[in-house]
Amino acid sequence: MGLLDMIGPVMVGPSSSHTAGACRLALLARHLLGEKPRRVEFGLHGSFAKTGKGHGTHLALAAGVLGLRPDDERLKESLALAEKEGVEVAFKEVELGDVHPNTVRMVLEGEKERLTVTGSSLGGGVVRVFDVDGFEVRITGAAPTLVVKNVDTPGVVARVARILADDEVNIAHLTVSRKKRGGEAMMSIEMDRPLSEVPLRYLEHLSYILWVRQLPPVMD
């Protein structure tokens, strides 16, 4: 455990969970989209909905989708920055059921992609994205993470794992989810280091791979 684990992240305040955590969740969502968003709708659940404005949650979420980190002083001006960059940002209150009270559902639209990302801010700036387009994932932002959407065919997980192994990348955590047999599936892989460029490009061009995102850590 490091010092920052006890006193919280370096950030623009006031709250590690409502501000820094919210920013990190939205930053992960932007990386998942893989392009600059044109429009983002934030569905705020629980405490995010009830006390978010007072804690800067709206500003932090807008900052994250613009690619800003929690310690960026421009966070306080993020809504104006979003308007300047032509990114439409909307907020609404939602009920997401039995999830952490600091949870947000983000619907992002870019030029090519549309993605729904749901995650929670767990306290002290620690976050977890647990759903991407209805697939169960585990993305904490604490390590480089590979997210792969693929056709559910036998051997895909083993083939992806082999590509990582050939690049001497160690898997720290692997989550696999599918909606139905033979349909679409998704895996999230936390790694000890990022996958190199050549195997990453190779993976993207396999016939059974729909898309790949390599997410950098956001917890530093």
TrEMBL record:
GO molecular-function terms, A-Z: 4 iron, 4 sulfur cluster binding; L-serine ammonia-lyase activity; metal ion binding
Needed cofactors: [4Fe-4S] cluster
Location of the ACT domain: 145-217
UniProt keyword annotations, A-Z: 4Fe-4S, Gluconeogenesis, Iron, Iron-sulfur, Lyase, Metal-binding
Protein's GO biological process: gluconeogenesis
EC number(s) given by UniProt: 4.3.1.17
Domain of life: Bacteria
InterPro entries xref list: ACT-like_dom_sf, ACT_dom, ASB_dom_sf, Fe-S_L-Ser, Fe-S_L-Ser_bsu, Ser_deHydtase_bsu
Catalytic activities: L-serine = pyruvate + NH4(+)
Family per record: Belongs to the iron-sulfur dependent L-serine dehydratase family.
Protein name (database record): L-serine dehydratase
Higher taxonomy: Bacteria, Thermotogati, Deinococcota, Deinococci, Thermales
